[in-house]
Amino acid sequence: MSKSSKVPHILSQLSDQLFRGWSAFLVARHIDGVLERDAIADVRYLSVTVLVACVESTILALTKLTLPHKDSMHIGYLLNCCEQDPQTFPNVDRPEILTAVERHREQLEEVKPLIECARTWRNRAIAHLDKKHVNDPELMSSTPPIDMTRVEDTFRLLEGIINTYRGYLDFSEMRLSESEARIADEWERLVGLLQSDNKET
Questions:
Q1: Structurally, how many domains does the chain consist of?
Q2: Sign of dihedral through CA atoms 60, 64, 68, 72?
Q3: What number of other Cβ atoms are within 10 A of residue 26's Cβ?
Q4: Range of the domain at 40
Q5: Has residue 74 been placed in a domain?
Q6: How many other CB atoms sit within 10 Å of the CB of residue 141?
Q7: Is residue 85 a part of any domain in this protein?
Q8: Position 65 in a domain
Q9: Does residue 22 contact residue 184 with C-beta atoms inside 8 Å?
């Protein structure tokens, strides 16, 4: 591995950002699934607040990971570094690296419409409150909602891309499924406690 290579650090940062975005997505999905159940009626206000915060965190993580910016680390920057510094992967042939980079760029291009939708919501409602909410409310109401199923698929795509280059460096594999199982278990435990408390009162 090149001593000056940025790739290991980039992989670490992107893995961390993906994990945080994925965790926020999972929490939002679990809350949304029980929002109308009597079990959380006594903590509905808290639940809605956490749901909104987690949805916003999900969208922010997705845009951080995918949107290019000259001063930021994102998945495209990772691909550029891998392409330009193949010495980072001494045990992998250069043609294999270039093929992987090209394949991953094509996959990212396929999810570009979703990324642009996330950018719109980030810019108009999360990063700042757009004046169009007042000046052009019809535009805001007509802005397409983000398809969270596609967000999930995109997070899994990013996991696969990141794991490809982690594997080239013999790093451990990132497994979103592990956090998925843990959050599901802890959520069911929390809902169970709320249900027990409701029965006692």
A1: 1
A2: positive
A3: 22
A4: 7-184
A5: yes
A6: 8
A7: yes
A8: yes
A9: no
